[in-house]
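Thanks for the sequence, V.! I ran N-acetylmuramoyl-L-alanine amidase right away. Repeating your input here for the record:
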Amino acid sequence: MASNDGMYPLRPGDRGAAVADVRAALRSLDLLQPATGDDGNAGNAGETGGAGDAGETGNTGVESVYDSATELAVRHFQQVRGLTVDGQVGEETYRALSEARWSLGDRLLHHDPERPVRGDDVTSLQERLLELGYDAGRADGILGPETEAGLRAFQRDYGLTADGTCGPATLRALRQLGRKVTGGRPQLLRQSASMVESGPHLIGRRIVIDPGHGGDETGFTAGETTEADLVLDLASRIEGRLAAAGATVYLTRGREQNPSAAERTTFANDARADLFLSLHTDSHGSEHARGVASYYYGTGSGASSTVGEQFAHLVRREIVARTGLIDLGGYPRTWELLRMTRMPAVRLDCGYLSHPVDRLLLLDAKLRGTVASAVLAAVQRLFLPAEADPPTGTFVLPRSSSSG
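Predicted structure:
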């Protein structure tokens, strides 16, 4: 697929070369059938740019029209891939479609620090290395330094040239060998061991809190209240509580900044954070939409941030237990904000500003303080051994003698 950088989201009713490109990708994934009466050439023309000319002159076939079947196929793809299901093709969906076309063996794979290789073939490589007991990092479909190191280690152990390139010889070796790690996800085993070794305390932990939106991007607005200001206030309260417990805390923005998702994840990676928490409130046209939801990196097919998943459930349940907000559950997503962080990352949607009850609760400074305390408790519980972990909603850090 051609680059989609800077293109506005594709929606039902749109037409042209980019739509033909999307339809061709959906057909290659068996999610969309060729349009009725189409001879199959329109899709090829879209890939070579011909459909774009036809779309502009009006002499195009239906292959370059974003119709209801295309929207349904896009929604299905988004659901399976852990993307926001809106039936539109924005940058993340377009990128995911491009990555989905690659199968392991379609191309040589090697680490490029400037432009990391991305695709489903990389995910397959990572999962295979993890199954064989090699630390290839998270199975996120991005060939980074951790995956290269795992690949080189595998090549050395099996007498191959340890060049960090997955070519025909390496592929043959990978396919011939049975898995070594059984009885659970290897990422879970490795991350759980790391958590136990790190100790049950917050002193020295680096935690990045990411208030959503910012600057001119205010998020949902209700009267004089904006999502951006509300989550910044909440982030500041969480920062204070975590810092008092000994953690080193960083905020990704101030009041006037609105970093991109890439800038937020780069900030967290450069800080070598142990944990990343992105804060949002939600909104919806339905008068019934309210409650707290949490999201962690995961594809829904076994590849996930296991510590992220654990923390997503901990923080949501602590908030629900202490505030009475409705529990909407935790879900795996492949959003770039969760995928590109190199540490456990969670997005928390803390109530609906569009719902009158949630809005009244969130506007109460005392409740926001309670939410901040709930986050602190969840972070502390994340590092506690299982036998010392108290019931949800009951954990309180001991007060120091100087605090009275």
